[in-house]
Amino acid sequence: MVKEQLPKAQLTSLTNMGEAVNELQSGKVDAVHMDEPVALSYATKNADLAVATVSLTMKEGEENAVAIKKGNSDLKEVVDKVIQKLKDDGTYQTYLEKAAKLTEVEQ
After folding, report:
1. What does the alpha-carbon distance between residue 8 and residue 5 come to, in Å, rounded to a whole number?
2. Cα separation of 80 and 90, whole Å?
3. Phi first, then psi: what are they for 102, rounded to 5°?
4. Is residue 60 within 8 Å of residue 98, measured between CB atoms?
5. What count of Cα atoms within 13 Å lies in the side-chain half-sphere of residue 105?
6. What's the pLDDT score for residue 68?
7. Which of 36, 45, 60, 76 could be cross-linked to 65 through a Cys-Cys bond (beta carbons 3.0 to 4.6 Å apart)?
8. Helix residue ranges per DSSP H, 1-107
9. What is the pLDDT of residue 26?
10. Chain-centre distance for alpha carbon 84
11. Average pLDDT by consecutive 10-residue portion of the chain (107 residues)?
């Protein structure tokens, strides 16, 4: 999915999230793609990490986030542009509406 939608990105496959985060912190990679709750957990425990939520086109139920090493302003700028595009074309609002319906409590 990332390779198809970000064709200029150089991908490195790592099987362990801890290893991926170590690669990010050491500067060997610029970003790590992982599930949002996992990304938030790492960011909470590591002051040098930040989370950027990115909505790539994916199958339902495969929402993810991107962890970016703090100070990587070039990558953050790209991520921010993608998020703005999703807001401008209505995709972000549609997602929020669907998420709100999933969290409604029946009375």
Report:
1. 9
2. 15
3. -70, -25
4. no
5. 1
6. 80
7. 36
8. 2-5, 17-25, 36-45, 73-88, 91-103
9. 92
10. 14
11. 73 81 89 78 86 69 69 85 87 74 46
Residue 67 near residue 49 (C-beta atoms within 8 A) = yes
At residue 105, the pLDDT reads: 40
- To the nearest 10°, report the CA torsion of 15, 19, 25, 26: -100
Q: What span, in angstroms and rounded, lies between the C-alpha atoms of 14 and 44?
A: 22
Structure tokens at 65: 């986030």
Distance CA(83)–CA(16), nearest Å, equals 27
Give bridge partners of residue 31 from the DSSP assignment.
68
User: Is the separation of the CB atoms in 30 and 11 below 8 Å?
Assistant: no
- How is residue 30 annotated by DSSP? S
Task: Decide: 53 and 65 in contact? Cβ < 8 Å.
Answer: yes
Question: Strand pairing partners for 49?
Answer: 69
